[in-house]
Amino acid sequence: MVQMPAGLTRQLAGAIVAGAILGAIITALIFVVVQRDDGTADASPAAGRADPGTAMCAAIPVANQVLPSIVKISASRGAQAGTGSGQIVRAGGYILTNDHVISVAAGGGNVSVQYTDGHSSGAVIVGRDPSTDLAVLKASDAAKDFPVIGLGSSAALQVGQPVVALGAPLGLASTVTSGIVSALDRYVPVPGDGVTHHLIGAIQTDAAINPGNSGGALVDCAGRLVGVNAAIATVPNAAGVSGGGSVGLGFAIPVDLAKPITDDLIRTGRPGHPTTGLQVQEISPTGLFVLAVDTAGPAAKAGLKTGDIITKIGNEPAVSSEQIVVATLTKKVGDTLEVTYVRAGTTATTTLTLAAP
Predict the structure, then answer these.
(1) Which residues are known to be catalytic?
(2) Phi and psi of 168, rounded to 5°?
(3) Which residue, 73, 63, 72, is CA-closest to 41?
(4) In Å, what is the CA distance from 156 to each residue of 161, 179, 343, 346?
(5) DSSP per-residue letters across 113-176
(6) List of long-range contacts for 181-186, beta carbons under 8 Å, 24+ apart
(7) 301 exposed, middle or buried (CB, 10 Å; 0-12, 13-18, 19+)?
(8) Is the peptide bond before 285 cis (omega within 30 degrees of 0)?
(9) Interatomic CA distance for residues 332 and 189, integer angstroms
(10) How many CB atoms lie under 10 A from the CB of residue 331?
């Protein structure tokens, strides 16, 4: 599990609430359209690719290899519509993207994908995970004759390593940009439509990504998927409104986090994140008030009761209910979570063993 620096986590979380992060605003990368009433890709090293220690990848062979696996995604429901990006990750037409790209179409909308040769296919939503901002689609034509993208490992990434971003910024399909890994292990909470998307262990890159790049690929110099582009930080104007374009601060979901979630979504239609069996409410500055406890869940088995006040989660002060969400996103069934709480004026510590949802 990636351990997030506590200070960075608090800075980012606070900055999102305030709308600024060192003068920047975090935004998701869906390109919103306003409507009126009226086979596996070859993941072997691309010819002429850059050494990981050099400044840039050889973008031409990477583009030739990876673009056939990239799609432009259009999602709509009624007058609401938008476009984003995705990549074919499994034979049969399974496409990985961001949840915020297709959320508008959930519950009765329409989704379609456009391939690099320009032709389109309808698609259905196989599964969604709003918490990590991931979703899987299945193309109606099974993406025949288009390759599955090769998978890399985000664990092997190094700061300064060259990468390439591919997608459909502003609806412009088959766009390729390049840059480097600027930083690793970022925690970036991104406000969504009634939900907070948690980018856990995010890859920060200066490769130009813009609205519409959401869900698209971040690949290494061998054309292997290492991240799913999801958000950017932009500089606001004097009125505090985001400029919307790239300033070299992009964030991608690491593939090592995305892959098991993708597998769960394809297999069951839902993520397999473990549960604590807790419902809590923030009571600043005291901590988290326990509203309810699943009688058969981990919290009850660990001795927590309704009315307890959680003051620490792990080694961190309990200040937000999102801390519990993040903890479950970074752990698996059977992992433990230490919780400090107060009951009738007495402080105690217990350990929850996370269970299947």
Answers:
(1) 100, 133, 214
(2) -130, 65
(3) 63
(4) 10, 17, 45, 45
(5) EE-TTS-EEEEEEEEEETTTTEEEEEETTTTTT-PBPEE--GGG--TT-EEEEEE-GGG-SSEE
(6) 181/157, 181/205, 182/206, 182/248, 182/249, 183/159, 184/157, 184/159, 185/2, 185/3, 185/4, 185/5, 186/8, 186/12, 186/251
(7) middle
(8) yes
(9) 20
(10) 16
**Cβ-based neighbour number of residue 155 at 10 Å:** 12
In CATH, what is the architecture of 1-270?
Answer: Beta Barrel (2.40)
Tell me the longest C-alpha to C-alpha distance in the chain: 68
Per-residue pLDDT reduced to its tens digit, 316-336: 999 999 999 999 998 999 999
Q: Each residue of 127-142: pLDDT tens digit? A: 999 999 999 999 999 9
The CATH number of 278-353, from 1.10.3720.10, 2.60.40.10, 2.30.42.10, 3.50.30.20, is 2.30.42.10
DSSP-derived letter for residue 108 is: T
**Cβ neighbour number for residue 68 with a 10 Å cutoff:** 20
Tokens of 75: 């999602």
Determine the Cα–Cα distance for residues 289 and 283; give it in Å rounded to an integer: 6
Q: What is the DSSP string of 273-338?
A: --B--EEEEEETTTEEEEEEE-TTSHHHHTT--TT-EEEEETTEE---THHHHHHHHT--TT-EEE
End-to-end CA distance of the chain: 20
Whose CA is closest to 220, among 274, 177, 164? 164
Local structure of residue 357 (DSSP, 8 states): -
Transcribe 211-253 into DSSP letters.
TT-TT-EEE-TTSEEEEEEEEEEE-B-TTS-B--S-SS-EEEE
Going from N- to C-terminal start, the domains of the chain cover 1-270, 278-353
Q: Give the integer Cα–Cα distance in Å for 122 and 110.
A: 8
Q: Which residue has the tokens 């009125």?
A: 239
pLDDT in tens, 262-319: 999 999 999 999 999 999 999 988 899 999 999 999 999 999 999 999 999 999 999 9
Lowest mean pLDDT among 6-10, 145-149, 283-287: 6-10
